[in-house]
Amino acid sequence: MQQPLAFRMRPRNIEEVFGQQHLVGEGKIIRRMVDAKMLSSMILYGPPGTGKTSIASAIAGSTRYAFRMLNAATDTKKDLQIVAEEAKMSGTVILLLDEVHRLDKTKQDFLLPFLENGKIIMIGATTENPYISINPAIRSRCQIFEVKSLNETDIQAAIKQALSDEERGLGLYQTRLTDDALLHLSRATNGDLRSALNALELAVKSTQPDEDGTIQLTLAVIEECVQRKALTHDKKGDAHYDVISALQKSIRGSDVDAAMHYLARLVEAGDLVSICRRLMVIGYEDIGLANPAAAARTVTAVQAAEKLGFPEARIPLAQAVVDLCLSPKSNSAYLAIDGALADIRNGLVGEIPAHLKDSHYKGAADLGRGVGYQYPHDTPDAWVDQQYLPTGMTNKHYYQPKMTGKYEQALAHRYQHLEKNKKNRS
């Protein structure tokens, strides 16, 4: 039985990796490690199908080290011993350890000495947050890199290569993939290249050629093979972003019915990733300090939706949309950080007051670092009238409170009280 297209198209060297340019691009950390042949054990974490195994395979191909693959959950200590013996006899072995967060203590204790002496270069792969799910003993011996979902351009480039590659891909088939079908295939799989390639292979091998012997991969064919409907047949591909924009603007405008309509469009298209990301953005950008609890509830709803998957995910998502729509709204924090960033980017930074500078080192006091700093918790109101903003910026005001929710009203009263104290003591 032939191996799946996604398996066959795995990169043979670091140059063939699609996406993850923040790690494997020219001058970036993993590329530097490969070029210098100074590899260290690492943990790659991120969503499924984003290239964790591909990066490990590419590193091995570029360095020409032996490459072995094990699963921390299903493979045994004996399997690790076999890899260790190979490393002792032939030199360095790159070990891709999938589901590394499920490595038990027995296997971990066996593996640690080999990670220490560099005989085994472990590349752990996981979809879990390693800072939470992986034992500190392993984590401390590895560099941790986040692998991100591929963008449309990366996935489209991989699809085109798979269609043209006669040795590993589908180049022996005479295929025509329409522009709208390519666009939908690159979006509907939500950054998962494995899913995109496997759907492409199914489409090619299950579609009968036309009279000219050409396999016509239309939007309808791709919709069936990925089991997700396109939002529209608009070849320019604007509809995807239009619907997301309309969802946010409808929630911002407190129109529950309109927001529910646009949510339904995205649910029907199966775009869980875009929905979840956008709702969390809305929770903090548009609801903000008027109702922080709504933002927290949105995060909980998103987590539930991601655990449930469709079709059940629609229920917590709908609940979050109603909650956000009818919540009081404030963009004060959003405006405050953007105002501060604008000053930074325009070169307005100023000198940090000496009494705020780090004083936890020998000789700091001789330089005036931390001298004169007053500790607010030593005062009844937990507030001291001293300079915090950089020199030359003491009149800057970024945060302008709004009065649209009880929580921010309380913040506003506190803010106004402190501002009044500043004026009274000046």
UniProtKB/TrEMBL annotation:
InterPro entries referenced in this protein's UniProt entry, alphabetically: AAA+_ATPase, AAA_assoc_2, AAA_ATPase_RarA/MGS1/WRNIP1, ATPase_AAA_core, DNA_pol3_clamp-load_cplx_C, MgsA_C, P-loop_NTPase
Any one GO biological process: DNA synthesis involved in DNA repair
The keyword ATP-binding is assigned to this record: yes
GO molecular function term, any single one: ATP hydrolysis activity
Keywords assigned by UniProt, alphabetized: ATP-binding, Nucleotide-binding
Pfam annotation, one family: AAA
SUPFAM superfamilies in the record: P-loop containing nucleoside triphosphate hydrolases, post-AAA+ oligomerization domain-like
Domain AAA+ ATPase intervals: 38-150
Entries under PANTHER family matching the protein: ATPASE WRNIP1, WERNER HELICASE-INTERACTING PROTEIN 1 FAMILY MEMBER
Family membership: Belongs to the AAA ATPase family. RarA/MGS1/WRNIP1 subfamily.
Name of the featured protein: Replication-associated recombination protein A
Organism, scientific name: Vagococcus zengguangii
